[in-house]
Design a protein that fits this description.
The complex is a heterodimer of chains A (143) and B (137). The N and C termini of chain A lie far apart (46 Å). The radius of gyration of chain A is 19 Å and the shape is elongated. In chain A, strand 3 and strand 4 form a beta hairpin. Chain A is mainly beta and 143 residues long. Chain A has one helix and eight strands, in the order H-E-E-E-E-E-E-E-E. In chain B, strand 5 and strand 6 form a beta hairpin. The chains are: A mainly beta (143), B mainly beta (137). The interface between A and B is large, with 59 and 47 residues.
Chain lengths: 143, 137
């Protein structure tokens, strides 16, 4: 289930993730990423005003790449095809895979749907989602 | 709801990045082995490597004594971006292959598009198959 990918939905897993990460840091290992098991794996970043979602999708067919948002959900879909050599070619290694993908994630806070921007550069899909006014921090004056 | 890709279409699986365990590079940070396709035709060996997130100038390819090295440096995400949740790791790439064929060094070409490096390594004339005509008496 792609929905389970967002850790905020399942506090138990988030807790375990943090715990494991803390332990591995303690033992000197680098922090590990946890894949949700659905292509593409996503990384989420925030700079205080904008949410950035990134995915490594080398060789995606640009025409099939599609990013859509609806309410609190972001959908990324597309296709990757491998150009195959002629029949007289002889494979030594064949590790790269092709196929379709579709990933749906629930966003952690409301975003301004009108201002979402997506780019695809050097095989990385980047989606910038500015926070909606209601999800920007607001200082409460103390009476 | 998560809907499956259309029937008859293969769904792209998730592959965890493979950390490089031997011969780490001199740059700091983790190194990963890029996935590759390598195929050979009569004239050339072609290597295609997935190197997402690197800029063309940060890719280095080197062929020395039949040892092909592909390495690429990845620029980290700008520090103003605080990671919220990470499903894939970011790191440099490095992989080496021993080529069994003589390559014409001067004719190697490299192309990088949408995160995929394509190296074409033309075989040296001596390595190309030559049809030996069978003499019939």
């Amino acid at each position: 289930m792609a929905f389970a990918a967002w850790p905020f939905l399942d506090e138990r897993w988030r807790y375990n993730d943090d715990l494991l990460r803390g332990l591995s840091n303690y033992f000197g290992a680098r922090p590990t990423a946890r894949s949700a098991g659905v292509f593409p794996p996503l990384n989420f970043y925030d700079d205080g005003t904008t949410l950035m979602v990134r995915a490594e999708i080398p060789g995606a067919n640009r025409k099939t790449l599609e990013v859509t948002s609806q309410a609190d959900q972001l959908t990324i879909r597309g296709e990757r095809r491998i150009t195959t050599p002629g029949a007289n070619a002889n494979y030594h290694r064949r590790e790269r895979e092709e196929g379709q993908f579709r990933r749906v994630v629930t966003l952690p806070y409301p975003v301004d749907a009108e201002k979402i921007r997506a780019t695809y550069q050097n095989g990385v899909l980047e989606v910038l989602l500015p926070r909606a006014a209601e999800s920007l921090p607001r200082q409460i004056p103390i009476q | 709801m998560e809907t499956q890709p259309q029937k008859g279409q293969e769904e792209l699986p998730v592959r965890e990045k493979q950390p490089v365990t031997r011969e780490p590079g001199t740059h700091e940070g983790p190194y990963f082995e890029p996935s590759v396709d390598i195929y050979e035709t009569e004239d050339a060996i072609t290597v295609q490597a997935d190197l997402p997130g690197v800029y063309p100038d940060d890719i280095q390819t080197d062929l020395k004594e039949n040892l092909l090295t592909i390495s690429a440096r990845v620029k980290p995400v700008d520090s103003r971006w605080k990671p919220l949740h990470q499903e894939y790791e970011i790191g440099n790439y490095m992989r080496q292959f021993r080529l069994g064929q003589q390559i014409d060094q001067s004719k190697i070409t490299a192309q990088y598009k949408d995160g995929v490096l394509t190296l074409t390594l033309p075989k040296a004339a001596s390595a190309k198959p030559r049809r030996i005509k069978i003499q019939t008496s």
